[in-house]
Backbone:
């Protein structure tokens, strides 16, 4: 992870996930009331956040008509604080444009702050929402540029000066495009292929041009690299080393329109995201863990010399054909001793129950609207 810098603080906001629960209390490792030395992160639910808004006068009531909806997929907003600056990245977009727009608005996300978006892998429950993300970001940036130009023009002492200032403001607001970081091996669509050859297809994957409105630049990366001046690391291919994390039986891909369906058990385009918090270690996000979450954690350990400090995402242990992987997965996660594990999306209730039993106060499920903050260690 060459080039990855240490952060003063890392914030996560779950925009899309399979489960909604704004009332349950966090595990001990994310309990905001615990001493800083006794927790890995501070958790706040969507309901707690909204209650705070009412108590401080930012909202008039606890409005349950304006809450985020759960949906099958994942989207997470990350904000890195380093050297007095904030860097904002979107990890996946969830399964639908409508859900992404609704949840970002319900959660008060200012999409104009997003500087980069990363697609973990080409699966519609992660990719399709990025169409709306790209559109919303483009619109927000255009509006910000227009507002900046109007302000510059209005405050100018002369018409000529105003024109130059407005031009500078508009140019400054649009000069640096928002990067949409994608894997180059894009299928037309994916689906399930039964032993008799029958295929149940998913929706088509987004076309690249749908993800590149004005102000957005699509970049294709197959190898590991850093983003936003080293605030985040995007992995390349994930080594498959465990004996039991053996891919996804029945998974197939169609690589060209109306092309033949091909077995694709590995989903080799999946990548994880990592950030390093000062004095703590690496926080890793694995959206679906088609390579296996233990393989992901071991790759982080191989690259950094330390097991991950915290692990977040979908572990893909919900399907029937992965049930036998639950116990060895849990055992290997426990052996690496992460300080916090937050599992959601495709992890499945049986795996979540096993993780909770094994990790106790170091485990909790992921919920839509959940907020986590990872501060630097007190003595860092």
Residues:
């Amino acid at each position: 992870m060459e080039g990855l810098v240490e952060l003063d603080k890392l914030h996560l906001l779950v925009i899309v996930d399979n489960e909604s629960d704004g009332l349950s209390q966090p595990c001990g490792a994310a309990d905001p009331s615990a001493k800083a030395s006794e927790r890995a992160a501070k958790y706040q639910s969507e309901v707690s956040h909204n209650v705070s808004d009412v108590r401080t006068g930012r909202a008039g009531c606890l409005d349950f008509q304006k809450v985020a909806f759960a949906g099958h997929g994942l989207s997470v907003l990350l904000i890195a604080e380093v050297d007095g600056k904030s860097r904002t990245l979107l990890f996946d977009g969830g399964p639908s444009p409508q859900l992404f727009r609704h949840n970002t608005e319900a959660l008060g996300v200012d999409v104009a702050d997003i500087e980069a978006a990363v697609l973990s892998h080409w699966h519609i429950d992660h990719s399709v929402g990025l169409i709306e993300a790209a559109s919303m970001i483009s619109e927000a940036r255009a509006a910000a540029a227009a507002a900046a130009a109007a302000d510059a023009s209005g405050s100018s002492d002369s018409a000529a000066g105003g024109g130059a200032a407005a031009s500078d403001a508009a140019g400054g607001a649009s000069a640096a495009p928002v990067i949409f970081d994608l894997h180059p091996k894009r299928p037309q669509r994916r689906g399930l292929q039964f032993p008799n050859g029958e295929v149940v297809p998913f929706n088509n994957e987004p076309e690249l041009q749908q993800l590149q409105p004005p102000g957005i630049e699509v970049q294709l990366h197959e190898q590991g690299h850093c983003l936003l001046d080293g605030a985040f690391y995007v992995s390349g291919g994930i080594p498959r080393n465990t004996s039991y994390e053996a891919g996804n039986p029945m998974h197939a891909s169609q690589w060209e329109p109306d092309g033949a369906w091909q077995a694709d058990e590995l989903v080799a385009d999946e990548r994880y995201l990592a950030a390093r918090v000062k004095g703590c270690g690496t926080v890793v996000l694995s959206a679906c863990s088609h390579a296996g979450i233990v393989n992901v954690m071991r790759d982080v350990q191989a690259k950094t010399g330390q097991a991950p400090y915290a692990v977040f995402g979908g572990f893909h242990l919900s399907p029937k054909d992965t049930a036998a992987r639950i116990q060895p997965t849990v055992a290997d996660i426990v052996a690496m001793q992460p300080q916090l594990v937050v599992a959601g999306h495709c992890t499945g209730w049986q795996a979540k129950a096993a993780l909770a039993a094994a990790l106790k106060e170091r485990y909790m499920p992921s919920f839509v609207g959940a907020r986590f903050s990872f501060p630097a260690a007190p003595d860092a």
User: Anything to note?
Assistant: Confidence is low (pLDDT under 50) at residues 161-174.
